[in-house]
Amino acid sequence: MHQCEIMVKDMADSRRVNLLIQQKKLKENQPVGDSKPDAANESFSSTIVSRHFWPPFKGEEVELHENLRGMYDDFSRGYSALKAPRSLEWKTQLGFVELEIEIGGVTREFSVTPSLATVLLHFKDNKTRSVEELCDLMKVESGEEKVVKSYISYWVGHGVIEESTPGHYSQVKVLTTEVEKRSSSAVVVDAGDAENVQKAKEAELAAEMKIYESYIVGMLRNFSTLPVDRIHDMLKMFVSTGEHKYDKKIGDLQLFLNQLCAEEKIETDGVSFSLPKNS
């Protein structure tokens, strides 16, 4: 229980640190993350956790786009000024970036991981990219190209980029609206491809829920076994404020837990969830 109390304290401390850094930036009349002229309306907040009291954070770390990296560095400087000599070690595979994309007069908003945002920002720099180029820019090791391909597939699936020539991708010239995207999905279902549409929906939900995975693993490490309703209530307590507070339906959580079971990250007896015996 002591470990769980520290996790809750980390969340409260993070909110306080975020507020202090934001206030300092406002006094300096410089928004957090203002390392670029076009970043004046950006904001940045973080969750700062105690290394030894949280489970290991899994996932692929990549080299972030310089616009994002500048925001991380700005926050690190603010943190070091408050907490010297402490420093931050970023887990770039976690978190969310709010993007507003405008193409051809159509605007859409996305909440995605820093890795997905990095891919799209590289297309802003250069309208056409190959998988190999993106691997080099994001410092993805040889043989791990599937990681970058999965990021590309996300944006292709949302109609933001397209394959212009085999192995090369570019930004679309016309961005579809959400209504048009849903209509297109309906056509696919009528064509008998409902399974693929369902998989796409599950993948999108998993991306939205990814930030909560470490909380779930931490709960199961502390309490051994928990039913879905307890996990649901504890997530609402741990992530109760902030831009990405937990506000999912219990059915969404159940689907995500089932996916974690399929990936063998957790297991279930049909009623409660726990960590695998060998973890």
Write the layout of secondary structure elements.
Elements lengths: L1 H26 L38 H18 L13 E7 L2 E7 L1 H12 L2 E3 H7 L7 H13 L3 E5 L2 E4 L6 H13 L3 H16 L3 H11 L1 E3 H11 L11 H13 L4 E2 L3 E3 L5
Give the tally of β-strands.
Answer: 8
- Global mean pLDDT: 79
Total count of domains: 3
List low-pLDDT spans.
35-42, 182-197
Quick description:
The protein is α+β, with helices and mostly antiparallel strands and 279 residues long. 50% of the residues lie in helices and 12% in strands. The chain has ten helices and eight strands.
Jot down its keywords.
3 domains; alpha+beta; 12% strand; 279 residues; three-stranded antiparallel β-sheet; Arc Repressor Mutant, subunit A; 10 helices; 50% helix
Can you walk me through this structure?
With 279 residues, the protein is α+β, with helices and mostly antiparallel strands. The protein folds into 3 domains: 1-91, no CATH class; 97-176, Arc Repressor Mutant, subunit A; 194-279, Winged helix-like DNA-binding domain superfamily/Winged helix DNA-binding domain (Arc Repressor Mutant, subunit A). The chain has helices at residues 2-27, 66-83, 114-125, 131-137, 145-157, 178-190, 194-209, 213-223, 228-238, 250-262; strands spanning 97-103, 106-112, 128-130, 161-165, 168-171, 225-227, 267-268, 272-274. The strands form 3 sheets. It has a 3-stranded antiparallel beta sheet with strand order 3-5-4. It has a 3-stranded antiparallel beta sheet with strand order 6-8-7. A two-stranded antiparallel ribbon has the order 1-2. Strand 7 and strand 8 (272-274) form a beta hairpin. Helix 3 (114-125) packs across helix 5 (145-157). It is globular, with a radius of gyration of 20 Å. 20% of the residues are buried.
